[in-house]
Amino acid sequence: MSDFFLNIVEDEPQALSPEKVWKVAVIDDEESVHQATKLALANTHIMGRKLEFLNAYSAKDGLALLSAHSDIAVVLLDVVMETPEAGLGLAKAIRHDLRNFHTQIILRTGQPGYAPEESVITDYEVNDYKTKSELTRTKLFSAVYTAVRAYQNLTSLAAGREGLRKIIDSASTLFQERSIAKFSEGALEQINALFNINSDGIFCVSSAPKNPSPELAQYLTQHKHVDLSEVDNDFRVIATSTGYRDLFGVPLQQIPKKEVRQLINRALTTKSHVIEDHHIALYLDTPSTWQACIYLHSQQDITDKVDHEILKVFASNIALGLENTKFLTQLADTAYKDDVTSCYNRNGLMERAIPEVIDSNDHAVLYLLDIDYFHEITEALGFEYGNRVLNSFADKLKDAFPSDAMIARMHSDVFAVIVPGHGQPPIKRLIEHCSNQPLILENGDALRLGVTIGLSIHQEGTQADTTPESLIRHAEVALNKSKEQRRGSATTYDESLDAGSLERLNLLSELRRALSSNELELYVQPQVDISQQCKVVGMEVLLRWHHPILGNISPGVFVPLAERSGLAYELDLYVLRHSCSLVRQHPDLPPVSINLSAMSLDRGELLDDFASIMERFHITTKQISLEVTEGCLIKGNSALTNLQRLSDAGWDIHLDDFGSGYSSLNYLLRLPISTVKIDRLFILELKKTQHAATLLTGIIGIILNIGKRVVVEGIETQDQNDFVANAGAEVVQGFLHYRPVPFLSFVDEYKSH
Ligand code: C2E
Ligand code: CA
Ligand code: CA
Which ligand is nearest to the CA of 556? Predict the structure, then answer.
């Protein structure tokens, strides 16, 4: 660390820095002194920087100048200005009022022979004293030069001290981190805190030290399968800030952004820090020659904000942290291990487990096991509980499969097992093992979990091109097929499954991600009462998916997709949860209705799940109603039973899209519904035939006559509006009045009226 201080006071000639200057304030009531000073010091450079002159003509203006510029290096200060001791007063104010102790003050007086008391110099912390006649060009230069140097040392030391304190603080927090991933994440955060910048970054570490001790070398080669001759080329991203989340676990050479890869490579090959306007690559190496690189990117130009010396100290501190043996053995694992279960993660499966199995076995099977309704478990019981379930499930898998099988957790609730050879457990028994025997958690709780399974088979000779990627992809296609059919089933991949389903698979996994990352936004479309000056009397919640790459995806696409693949229930729960949360925050809104998909109405657990969400947000069934289509009810008795139970529980149910499909007046009488929403198709037909108009009038009449509310959908024109008003309808929903808008924008608008 002594190097650090040496560096600050070093006196090497430096390249001229065009944008940086030393500010010199001339405070004097005589214009000629300003002129002469400027002339004497024109074209002067001190340590690579030009001088910039600031001028004031009284102590009062001088004080204003110094308050406005805290970075003035030197003040050339006249003693006698508006009063005989105005300059002394200003010196005192600079130190005591402005609390500026860095700016160097050189007092000047026109009276030869007059020297202030020594006490003045110490009391006012004046740095130098000259009579004006003494200030020849050379003497002025040397006085200013000395002052600028002193100023620079003071400010660097101050920054250095502050920086050092932060480094020491951060190091002690960081060294308490137990995992290398947390340590590296911490390091990325600390850099931002240290320099008060906002950068995104990644932390890459080599797979092993270049010159490990013999014991470590043996451990790494035997247990971690590290090829020590490849260490120089084998770097991996082990931590990222949010902006680079996608790069987690990725090998350095596979980082898609060329400029990122290149900058890191440059730091690694030159073994030095690379600092550019918006990027930094810090090179770290530890005494036992682990190598690492921290890459940072910032939207702002960070060269000014980042003090190179402090950065160096920081980097060597981080390197020391890396060296900490506690981390060493974990290093090779982290990119491959799942934090929660200590099984492999997707990376580990792809790069370690599957290659190991298929390289040495002619036959192997990959299973993907998806825990049914896991999301609801964590939803109801919390994340920690969810993690315990995952751990116990992993144990269960170890029991169910032969001992040479390897287990990985792919993502949230999907596990993968690769089993070498032919010793496969019968699928039926496997599903029973998972579903029939309850899972006993450490705390004694028993839980019955269902699984849905997809398999793919590696068979040497038949599929010569089996790769880890293709095995996983095929198993995913198969798993998807199972989910489409029914939960608790298993499907083995064959090529016929591939046609058409690939594209869907991608979108589907995207949708699953969107659900867990809250990428789906709730919009509302208000319903208005045309008999009451279009007062808003209700609003329908409609989902919008803003995909970061594909743009906006219509619910017309993703709702059916969710229905086909068993995600619809999760989607509906998502909408209910978010609606409850919004209604809770804005209790004075008109009643809200949400759409239920056909699949959801079939679910036995629907009532309980809904009730627990409502309870959690303290929302009553009077605040939210449910829209169901006739299609939901065609499916069978369980849907009808559920509908009745919902109604008994106090839910207000609206029949959606009436007239679009199976419409039967019979239903209207039998179903526990309060409201009928007449489908837009009727409105579209209006123009075409007189027949449609008669029918619509008749239907509205019947519905009102049997004591139900009517909402007419799809009103786009005033004519349509007038027509349905004449037919007796009161509530309408359509673009004429409102288009769907983000929930919160409607809230704002509603509250402002
Ligand atoms: P829906 O339940 O019949 O919703 C009404 C649809 O008609 C909405 O389309 C709405 O934007 C549109 N619409 C409203 N007024 C007019 C109009 O005057 N003219 C025209 N041309 N269209 C109008 P959106 O939002 O695209 O939703 C389409 C369908 O997707 C919905 O039909 C519903 O079946 C489904 N959906 C949307 N959000 C959700 C949801 O949160 N959960 C479930 N399960 N399904 C949803
Ligand atoms: Ca609807
Ligand atoms: Ca509708």
Answer: 1
